[in-house]
Specification:
Keywords: Nucleotidyltransferase, Transferase. By secondary structure, the chain is of the alpha/beta class. It contains nine helices and ten strands. The strands form two sheets. Strands 1, 4, 5, 6, 7, 8, 9 and 10 form an eight-stranded mixed beta sheet that branches.
Length: about 210
């Protein structure tokens, strides 16, 4: 059983504006595309949690309009992190507080990952189950990427962690529990942190491999 978490609480200071709601494709946003891809993968059988913080009213309004049916059915859940300025780990912990009893794995990804398509999510989850990985960390040419999958048994340990570095804190504590999965998908490492990156990749949505290489 899988619960997925999209970390979308950041202020996007390097972008200069709230990147979660920047247009990505016609009638869709960066955050919307990321959520759409996860839903289309059809691997989330418990909840897809979207953690929001900065400009939370604006993002909540957007999500409630776009995902009315998913929110009503319970597959999508909006979680507010009022401590988002303390860093990504605060959002991770916020997502961990309430989980379905049967939850087996947790999948974490970032809001600015519109390139990661449904097939990648499906491949990684299936491989994680096949290997019975404790912590599944995908990499492209040695660079860590997303999504990250962890067993629910690490929930209590994660809640005890301090710092701002997100799941990197957990990796540091349990390096021997990590399965480093080598992927040939450059999409998993691309972040949209700067305006120039956003403009470049948005304009060349279907030429990611050429741009990355």
């Amino acid at each position: 059983m899988l619960t997925a978490v999209v970390l979308a609480a950041g202020e996007a200071k390097r972008m200069g504006e709230l990147k979660q709601l920047l247009e990505w494709e016609k009638e869709n946003t960066i955050l919307g595309k990321t959520i759409d891809n996860l839903l289309a993968a059809e691997i989330v059988d418990e909840e897809l949690k979207v953690v929001i913080g900065a400009q939370k009213k604006r993002i909540r309004s957007y999500l409630e309009k776009k995902y009315y049916s998913e929110l009503k059915s319970g597959i999508l859940k909006i979680i507010e992190n009022d401590d988002y300025k303390r860093g990504m780990m605060s959002s991770v912990k916020t997502a961990l507080y309430e989980l379905p009893q049967d939850n087996q794995y947790l999948l974490f990804t970032l809001a600015d990952k519109p390139f990661i398509g449904p097939e990648i999510y499906k491949e990684f989850y299936q491989k994680c189950l096949e290997l019975k990985s404790d912590i599944f960390l995908p990499e492209y040419q040695g660079q860590k990427g997303h999504p990250v999958l962890i067993k629910n048994c690490f929930r209590e340990e994660a809640l005890k962690l301090k710092g701002e570095g997100g799941l990197r804190n957990l990796f540091a504590v349990f390096p021997d529990k990590i399965f480093h999965y080598s992927s040939d998908q450059p999409e998993i490492t691309v972040d949209l942190d700067l305006k120039k990156d956003y403009q470049k990749y948005k304009e060349n949505n279907y030429k990611l491999r050429v741009l990355k290489d």
